[in-house]
Amino acid sequence: MAHAGGIDVERQSVIATTRGARLLWAVAGHIFVVLGVIGAFVPLMPTTVFLILAASCYARSSARLHHWLLSHRVFGPVLRDWRDYRTMKAGTKRIAIAAIVVGFTASFFAIPLTWVRIIHVGIGLALVAFILRVETRG
User: Fold this and answer.
1) Alpha-carbon gap, residue 112 to 30, rounded angstroms
2) Is the domain of 42 the same as that of 68?
3) What would the pLDDT profile of 36-77 be if each residue is shown by its tens digit?
4) Is the pTM higher than 0.85?
5) Do residues 73 and 92 share a domain?
6) 87 has which bridge partners?
């Protein structure tokens, strides 16, 4: 397996065989990166989920883009932990749960319909439960 800068770039790379498919995967990856960056600043938008999707798309489009995302100084460590161990660090879990609680609480009061509020709370609780179930590493 090829290692570039300590990152195992071939581990998940299954580059598409046609140029058109590689282009579509790259475009999807770019879209997910943009959504992930937006999610870093908007409370109800996820960051890590979009970046995991971006890494998956880049693995099918370009080893260079895949390596770039996995070696990114901010996003790379979280993505590599998820890819290699399916774990999250304790600090990452705390930040994710705090963002969910703050974001969902703030938006709760903007929802006029009771049944939508109930669904909203259920989604928030499901997200927190999922994060708590993910094994903590480090």
Assistant:
1) 35
2) yes
3) 999 888 766 778 888 999 999 999 999 999 999 999 999 999
4) no
5) no
6) 135
